[in-house]
Amino acid sequence: MKDLFAIMKVMFVEKKDIALSVLCGFIAGITAIGLFSLSGYLISKSALQPPLYTLMILVASVKLLGIISALSRYGERYFSHRGTFTMLSQLRVHIYEKIEARTPAIFRQFQSGDLLARIVGDVETMQHFFLRVCYPPVVLMLVFISTIFFTSFFSFWLTMIILAGFLFAAFLIPAYIGWKQRKIDYSVRKSRGDISTQASEFLYGFRDLKIYQRIEEKAGQLQEAAKKYEAEREREGIHKQFAESINIFFSLLISFAVLAVGAYFVTTNQLDGVFLAMFVLIALTAFENTRGMAVLPSFLEDNRQAAIRLNSIFTEEKAREWGNARLQLEKSPFIRIEDVSFRFPEETRKTLSNVSLALPPGSKTAIVGPSGSGKSTLMQLMLQIFPVYKGKVYFNEEDAIYYSQESIWENANVVLQENHFFYGTIRDNLAIAKDGLTDARMEEILAKVKLNHFQLQDRVLEKGANLSGGEKQRLAIARALLKKAPMWFLDEPTSSMDALTEEAVYRAIFEAAKEDTLLLITHRLTGLEKMDQIIVMEAGKIVETGTYTELMEKKGYFYDMKQIERSVFYHG
């Protein structure tokens, strides 16, 4: 239940609406009982032909209670729903902030479909937490305590029957139903996560499935997941209907018991007959309120499972607390990494082991090495995309841990291996680089990266689906050139370009970054003669460092890589 309490702390911020809804609910419940009890008394009293003014007072009281009950019921609905919407808003903002702090590492822990099911489906499930879990027992207790207090003045034993029925209908039966519900709700939620994952993988991987002729196989798996989900939902629905039926049956049984015992008490003069109808209607009305308790275990378990899944988003891995200081750079910085080791969560293999390096102000550094050697991870640690748990990253000899992520990224031009492009136009995707960019400036940069065949109003589909690999890379580089920050981090920025285009793009980059600190990650070993230093990595470690000439004269790892590259291209 600790997960549920953690979510409660986030949701229960709007206490005013909660208190007003409980107050209105109590008034609505107690006036409804008063209305029916008075109606029962009126019916019985009318048979005795009382004075007309007595009937007029009773009828007026019934009408007044009816009006109060209707108004308070409206207030209860209004305040409870408004409070619920406020709670959901608080919860969505809280979860978004937690996810944002863990991006992009969170995608290594959760599949996108499962994550979507949690932040959409599980958050929607929590809308029932106050209305179906917290609110009913509180109002029911207040109403029943008042009812028991009232009926005790007329008959102790009938009051005890109503009290015993209340304990069974409100606590014992729901507890049994909740025990049976746990396993069902877990299965429903798991199958819902499975179908979300299967559906997202089917849609995102449709092209590859088509190429490898696996559409029918994957579609079959999706259909099986859908059938399983529907079967679990049907099972859940049957259980809920059964719970409600049991509750209604028991409520009616208690009402019949009140009628039978009350009739006996009337015959033995232990109860005035004029109050018998009142007791029966009180029992029927009071136990009407317990029907919400029949479905409470189902909603409680549903919300408990949702809370567990939501909390697991940001509690399974300890998130780093980022600093609040701003990194302000007037010129290119000195970047230093000291004894950094890193491994991804739930992986035993270290991605980086005791890496130390320095990037002097205004220097141009290339990191080369085989795939999987840790080059990209090292760059992402410099950008604080992933938290550094062992070792230090310094900007101008100040520990990066003190700086906010946003201020570090604000001072960096970044081109990753995979860059996101938004649905819209070329202009829209360039405009995110910097405020106040003119069309002329955008067109100038497009020409520098050989994208002048595009117009700024040309459409870009979701994730740049209508762009080639090289066009995507050049558009990402164009954004970096427009931003023009003093640090450059380039991860395989030209891997999908031809040699002539690559040369023109690098010329534009090095011209723009002439005074800046630049880090280039690449597999290609050509054109590295102009770099101030080359860092060679293998298996998460630095094996060589030096200029192009120094490394070739050393005839070590870099020299061997260069010879292999030459032989491959020669034989090609």
TrEMBL record:
Keywords: ATP-binding, Cell membrane, Membrane, Nucleotide-binding, Transmembrane, Transmembrane helix, Transport. One of its GO terms (molecular function) is ATP hydrolysis activity. It comes from the Bacteria. The keyword Magnesium does not apply. Residues 19-302 form the ABC transmembrane type-1 domain. It is found in: Cell membrane. InterPro entries: AAA+_ATPase, ABC1_TM_dom, ABC1_TM_sf, ABC_CydC/D, ABC_transporter-like_ATP-bd, ABC_transporter-like_CS, P-loop_NTPase, Type_1_exporter. The chain crosses the membrane at residues 20-44, 50-72, 129-150, 156-179, 248-267. GO terms for biological process: cell redox homeostasis; glutathione transmembrane transport. Residues 335-564 form the ABC transporter domain. It is a multi-pass membrane protein. The keyword Membrane applies. Its main location: membrane. SMART domains: AAA. GO terms for cellular component: plasma membrane. Pfam families: ABC_membrane, ABC_tran. CDD domains: ABC_6TM_CydC, ABCC_MRP_Like. NCBIfam families: CydC. This is Thiol reductant ABC exporter subunit CydC. It comes from Compostibacillus humi.
